[in-house]
Amino acid sequence: MDRLTRQRIANFYDGHFQRGYVRGKLASDPAYAATADAMTGSALPLLDIGCGIGLLGMYLHAKGALRGYVGMDHDERKIGAGRTAAIRAGLSELLDLRIGDAGTLPDLRGHVALIDVAHYLGRDDQQALLSAAATRVAPGGSLIIRTVLREDNWRFQVTCAEEWWLRASGLIRGGVKHYPDHAELCGPLRALGLQVNTQPMYGATPFNSYLIVAKRPG
């Protein structure tokens, strides 16, 4: 995404800090382009669980990759910011941003995104969410997950330190509850009939992030 488009999207949000955050995420976070790639070739809508301020929806619309969008997040502040930005962008009808959590998911069939969500849930809640998300993946659709995996390496230690700072600073609520390992995430998805591909998604960061794309055969 070019600089002018990033700035245009950022201008829909409030405040110097939030606009800087938006510009930085759009410029450096590889999860957005990876989600667009996973959705290529279909006209399915996207359910974005843990959508925050709705930035993934904004990105996909700017890329011409969005065919419908429902974003869910339990943080009322973030949903409010996302709704305001969507109104300013003239996208309030396309970007449906709702306050809710894993227990209030809509009965939507399409693609599903879980970007930086899983490790903020306990082990049992992670498994319940994976099951609920997988049932909402339509034939030909994908469940796109970006998460931290528990591994014995320096990247994982740096990630733990960064997550501690995010919680201490108040930028996130609740904090990490359980870092899953590869088998905890991918095994249940395969058992639910999805074809799973995993690859590192470090980008330009030191964090132990992975992209997991679980596709339901069409």
From TrEMBL:
The name on file for this protein is Class I SAM-dependent methyltransferase
Q: Which UniProt keywords apply?
A: Methyltransferase, Transferase
Could you tell me which InterPro entries the record lists for this protein?
SAM-dependent_MTases_sf
Q: Which GO terms describe its biological process?
A: methylation
Bilayer-crossing residues are: none
Leader sequence segment: none
Question: Which CDD domains does the record associate with it?
Answer: AdoMet_MTases
Asked whether the UniProt record includes S-adenosyl-L-methionine among its keywords, one would answer no
What is a single molecular function from GO for this protein? methyltransferase activity
